[in-house]
Write a structure and sequence with these properties.
Radius of gyration: 16 Å
Distance between the termini: 31 Å
Shape: globular
Keywords: Hydrolase, Iron, Metal-binding, Protein biosynthesis
Number of domains: 1
Helix content: 25-40%
GO molecular function, one term: peptide deformylase activity
CATH superfamily: Peptide deformylase
Cofactor: Fe(2+)
Number of strands: 7
Oligomer: single chain
Strand content: 25-35%
Largest sheet: 5 strands, antiparallel
InterPro entries: Peptide_deformylase (IPR023635), Peptide_deformylase_sf (IPR036821)
Family: Belongs to the polypeptide deformylase family.
CATH architecture: Alpha-Beta Complex
Strand order of the largest sheet: 1-2-3-6-7
Number of helices: 3
Order of helices and strands: HEEEEEEEHH
Length: 169
Amino acid sequence: MSVLTIIEFPDPRLRTKAEPVSVFDAELKQFVADMFETMYDANGVGLAATQVNVHKQVLVADMSDERNQPLALINPRLVQKDGAQVYQEGCLSFPGIYADVTRALKVTVKANDVDGNEIEREFEGPLAVCIQHEMDHLAGKVFVDYLSPLKRSMLLKRLEKQRKQAATA
């Protein structure tokens, strides 16, 4: 396994729409394993293939404290959503930036597993937020798109300030 490079906003590749996966082989399984290693290495809870510059519909997540509940969804499709919740989101492509975003409280997703089998799962609470966030990446959306122009501008200025400070440190 290997740690992949996570691209950071405002890199335009984060706006690329991912293509469906059609081949379920050892190469895909290795890529998913690399995504998990990358996510765990970056102390994240979710990662979309778009964030590592692979524009295929693949996402991984693990919100367990022990990091022992890995979830990989290939070609995920949202089939139902219910309720609403506000959750403070962060993103590995926006290091150190967090904002409250309103998303569905419960979602039902159809997807494939790494072997190509069709699965349908229901997610609720923080894991539902994570799945929606990563699915947005696959559609070329980022979480700051949900913010007001003023709030988005303030967060992006903070991100730029952090980068300048890191460059001079």
